[in-house]
Structures are given as structure tokens and as C-alpha cells.
């Protein structure tokens, strides 16, 4: 049996980050949590652990089974089911050195606990009905959130934003399934036309909502995981200078010699609440230099993967912008922002000629000077606008491809059910597809999800969560 599924074990792990720190928390969960605590924790009041009140901090000394003291700590009991996992939980709030944390965990193991696997506490919370699978995934997202937008989205998911929508759709389909089951049990009676019309209307409503949710996957990934913005253009257009300006420090080497950047350089910054990975690339041109050629090919690969491309153009030199656009837009569907750089060195006439070349095109254009930093605010605003578009920070979005796969499968099943109903096929045929749609929505929430999928999801959690 998978060790993670052995709910009879009492598990232990640090619940806080890597030492050193001011404090650390060591967490126990399972049937023997209080029994183990009794063996290694002596409250200053000398009261037996079993008599300590739930959810109250108690000062005491934690020690090994041999009696060797380890640290003066605060202990707290959380009696089932009023705990994170739904089991009896005990926590020891220790001083946050690696030696103390290691010794406390060892003492717990000596007293009968097992070191938890990554994600095992959350898995128990899921198995004990404290949260559904979407909420468990949201908890992982909240722990790893790097930006405020990612934090807000994860919190909405954790509070049931997506789950409640999916459960509502399931309720609608369950009502249809119940009526279909009744007609299957009494085949001599025909399904009334008004009932068929109502079922078709429900199928249509659910399908539309499934499509709307699925279309939000890109937005959800953007908010939770961030975006990849590639800086591209011809050699010596000022790409590395622009990269450094956006990053806020001298991250890339800048020289007046074309072809200085021969490999990609990355740095992640927060723009408008989104984690943006900026990628500085080699200048795009034909070259006989083998190493530079490899860098140019990597630049093209980055352009293919980008959420947004900043096409940097040297405004101080005559340039065919449409020719530059062909370097980055051919066969790609990437969004592009044209950045006219070095405007402090260009005349108004030169800038006018360049902007005239963009007439009739839909690409936004921003004028900047990396020397004076003029135009930086406008560029950041344009990047945010291009990435966020119509994305609402308050909306509920999918955050995993797994979510979208379940919803797409449910939508396909409903389309088959709709066709069967319109063709006046027997209720049994319709019921098969309705049940499939229900199963897919259930899998999204963790109802009937296979152990293999659960293993994959919870193994990505950190130890102690």
C-alpha cells in the first residue's frame, strides 16, 4: 500500500521554512499525536497532555525519550475534527535553528511518529473532507505565489471560487440524471416534450459555462505562473540596455559592438502584480560566426515560446521596421510591442519616419530612452495592457491544464448527450453521456480521482504541508 494512504500512521514534519529563523513549527497529525506529545513534552503546569485544552498555547519543555531536554517551546493541541487535516494535530513552536528542529523531529519519531511525505498533511485534509482537490491545489499555489495577483487568485480558489461553480453545474446535471433515471425505470412512458426542452436548455447552459471557464486557462496561468516577455531585434538596437532598465540593474553586458549578446539572459520582475520573466536575446541577423549563430537560433526559439515580444528598434538610424517585424512575426502568433529605442539620439524627423512605417499595423509602439529612462512608465503600462488585456483580477480562472482537460471532456460528453436527446434516442443513451460529464466534473473536484493522479498532485507539495 502506498505509504501516503496509511491513515493509521501518525506523521511529523517541520511546517515552517528552512532554518535558521526566529521560530519554527513541528507538526504532528494522526491518532497517536497526543500520545506521542505526552512522551516528549512536559508542560510547565505539569498537567497531562490529554487534559490540555484544545487550540490553546501551552509553555513547556520538549525532550527526548531519554529525558535530555531539547528546547523550551509552546505546544498546542487541535482535537479532531477541528484541525487542518481533520485528525488530532499537535504543534510544537520551537526556536528556529536547524539543530533544534532536527532534534524535535527525531524525538517525535523515537516516540512513534513517521516522517511525513511531501504533501501528506494536505492529502489527509483532502481525504478527510476538509477540502476538495481544487482547493488542495490552490493551497500549493498560495504557498508558491510570488505576486499579489497570484496570491489573490490562489486565495479565491482556496475559498471555493472555482469549486462552487463546478458543484453548481454538477447539481444541474444531477437533477437531469435523476429524471432520466426515472424514465429508464418506466420505459412505457414517453418523456414529455417540455421536459426534453428543459434538459436541452440545461445542457446548453452548462456547456456555455464550461467553455467560458476553459477559455480562462491562459489568464489563470498568466496570473499564477507569470508571463515570458522576450526582448528581440537587430544587433546594437539597445536590447540589453532595455533589459537592464526593466530589471532595474546591470544584468546584461552592454557595449557599442554589435553581437555582444550571444546567449539568452533571464531575470524575473513584478510588473502590475504579474511575475514577468524578461529574456534578453542575441541580435537577429545573418552571421558566419558559429557561436553567434547558435545564440540567434536560441533567440528564435524564445520568440516562439514568448507571451509577448518587445521588438527593439534603434530610432537613431534608418530602419525598415516592417523588415524587423518579419524577423519575429513569421509563423508565430505572439503579441508584439514595437519599442523605438535611443529616442534621445534621434531627431523628430527620424522618429516621425519610423512611426509612419507602422501606419496600418495593429502593433502598439512605445518610444523610450534607456539613457534618460524617458518612456519607461509608458512601456511598463503597455506591457501590462498587452499581457492582461481583458483579464479581471477578481474573476475565477483555471490554474492547471488538468482543470481544463476535465472541463473539455465534460463538454464533449454533454455535446453527445445533446445530440442523443435531439435524435430522440432512448434515455439510456443520454444517461451514459450525462454520467460521463458528471464523472469528469467530479474528477476535477477529486471525486473518484485515481491514486496515480493524487500521487502526482500531492508529491509536488513541500514537506510539512
Automatic annotation (TrEMBL):
List the GO terms this entry assigns under cellular component, sorted alphabetically: cytosol
Q: Which cofactor does it need?
A: K(+)
Sites binding GTP sit at: 236-241, 255-261, 280-283
SUPFAM superfamilies annotated for this entry?
P-loop containing nucleoside triphosphate hydrolases
The residues that the entry says bind (6S)-5-formyl-5,6,7,8-tetrahydrofolate are: 27, 91, 130, 465
A Gene Ontology biological process noted in the UniProt record is: tRNA wobble uridine modification
Q: Which GO terms describe its molecular function?
A: GTP binding; GTPase activity; identical protein binding; metal ion binding
TrmE-type G domain mapped to chain residues? 226-388
Q: Which compartment or compartments is the protein found in?
A: Cytoplasm
Q: Does the keyword Zinc apply?
A: no
Record's cofactor remark: Binds 1 potassium ion per subunit.
Q: Which family does it belong to?
A: Belongs to the TRAFAC class TrmE-Era-EngA-EngB-Septin-like GTPase superfamily. TrmE GTPase family.
Under HAMAP family, the record lists: GTPase_MnmE
- What does the annotation say about its assembly with partners? Homodimer. Heterotetramer of two MnmE and two MnmG subunits.
Q: What does this protein do?
A: Exhibits a very high intrinsic GTPase hydrolysis rate. Involved in the addition of a carboxymethylaminomethyl (cmnm) group at the wobble position (U34) of certain tRNAs, forming tRNA-cmnm(5)s(2)U34.
Could you tell me which PANTHER family the record lists for this protein?
TRNA MODIFICATION GTPASE GTPBP3 (PTHR42714), TRNA MODIFICATION GTPASE GTPBP3, MITOCHONDRIAL (PTHR42714:SF2)
Can you name this protein?
tRNA modification GTPase MnmE
Name of the gene this protein is made from: mnmE
Amino acid at each position: 500500500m502506498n505509504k501516503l494512504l496509511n491513515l493509521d500512521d501518525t506523521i511529523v514534519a517541520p511546517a515552517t521554512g528552512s532554518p535558521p529563523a526566529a521560530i519554527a513549527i513541528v507538526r504532528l497529525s494522526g491518532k497517536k499525536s497526543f500520545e506521542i506529545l505526552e512522551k516528549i513534552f512536559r508542560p510547565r503546569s505539569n498537567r497531562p497532555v490529554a487534559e490540555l485544552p484544545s487550540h490553546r498555547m501551552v509553555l513547556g519543555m520538549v525532550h527526548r525519550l531519554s529525558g535530555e531536554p531539547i528546547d523550551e517551546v509552546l505546544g498546542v493541541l487541535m482535537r479532531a475534527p477541528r484541525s487542518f487535516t481533520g485528525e488530532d494535530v499537535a504543534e510544537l513552536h520551537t526556536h528556529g535553528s536547524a539543530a533544534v528542529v532536527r532534534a524535535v523531529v527525531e524525538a517525535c519519531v523515537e516516540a512513534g511518529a513517521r516522517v511525513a511525505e511531501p504533501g501528506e498533511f494536505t492529502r489527509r485534509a483532502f481525504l478527510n473532507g476538509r477540502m476538495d482537490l481544487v482547493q488542495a491545489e490552490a493551497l500549493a499555489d498560495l504557498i508558491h505565489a510570488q505576486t499579489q495577483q497570484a496570491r489573490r487568485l490562489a486565495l479565491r480558489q482556496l475559498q471555493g471560487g472555482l469549486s462552487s461553480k463546478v458543484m453548481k453545474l454538477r447539481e444541474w446535471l444531477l437533477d437531469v440524471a435523476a429524471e432520466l433515471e426515472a424514465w429508464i425505470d418506466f420505459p412505457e412512458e414517453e418523456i414529455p416534450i417540455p421536459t426534453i426542452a428543459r434538459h436541452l436548455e440545461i445542457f446548453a447552459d452548462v456547456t456555455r459555462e464550461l467553455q467560458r471557464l476553459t477559455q480562462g486557462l491562459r489568464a489563470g496561468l498568466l496570473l499564477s505562473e507569470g508571463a515570458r516577455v522576450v526582448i528581440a531585434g537587430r544587433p546594437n538596437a539597445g536590447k540589453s540596455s532595455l533589459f537592464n532598465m526593466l530589471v532595474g540593474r546591470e544584468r546584461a553586458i552592454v557595449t557599442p559592438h554589435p553581437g555582444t549578446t550571444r546567449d539568452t539572459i533571464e531575470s524575473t520582475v513584478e510588473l502590475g502584480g504579474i511575475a514577468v520573466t524578461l529574456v534578453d536575446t542575441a541580435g537577429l541577423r545573418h552571421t558566419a560566426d558559429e557561436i553567434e549563430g547558435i545564440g540567434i537560433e536560441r533567440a528564435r526559439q524564445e520568440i516562439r515560446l514568448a507571451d509577448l515580444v518587445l521588438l527593439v528598434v534603434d530610432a537613431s538610424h534608418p530602419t525598415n521596421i516592417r523588415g524587423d517585424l518579419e524577423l519575429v512575426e513569421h509563423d508565430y502568433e505572439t503579441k508584439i510591442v514595437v519599442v523605438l529605442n535611443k529616442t534621445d539620439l534621434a531627431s523628430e524627423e527620424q522618429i516621425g519616419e519610423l512611426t509612419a512605417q507602422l501606419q496600418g499595423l495593429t502593433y502598439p509602439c512605445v518610444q523610450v530612452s534607456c539613457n534618460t529612462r524617458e518612456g519607461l512608465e509608458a512601456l511598463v503600462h503597455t506591457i501590462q495592457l498587452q499581457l492582461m488585456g481583458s483579464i479581471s483580477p477578481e474573476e475565477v480562472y483555471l490554474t492547471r491544464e488538468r482543470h481544463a482537460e476535465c472541463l473539455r471532456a465534460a463538454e464533449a460528453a454533454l455535446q453527445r448527450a445533446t445530440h442523443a436527446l435531439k435524435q430522440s434516442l432512448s434515455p439510456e443513451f443520454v444517461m451514459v453521456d450525462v454520467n460521463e460529464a458528471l464523472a469528469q466534473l467530479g474528477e476535477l473536484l477529486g471525486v473518484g480521482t485515481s491514486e496515480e493522479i493524487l500521487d502526482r498532485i500531492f508529491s509536488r507539495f513541500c514537506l510539512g504541508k
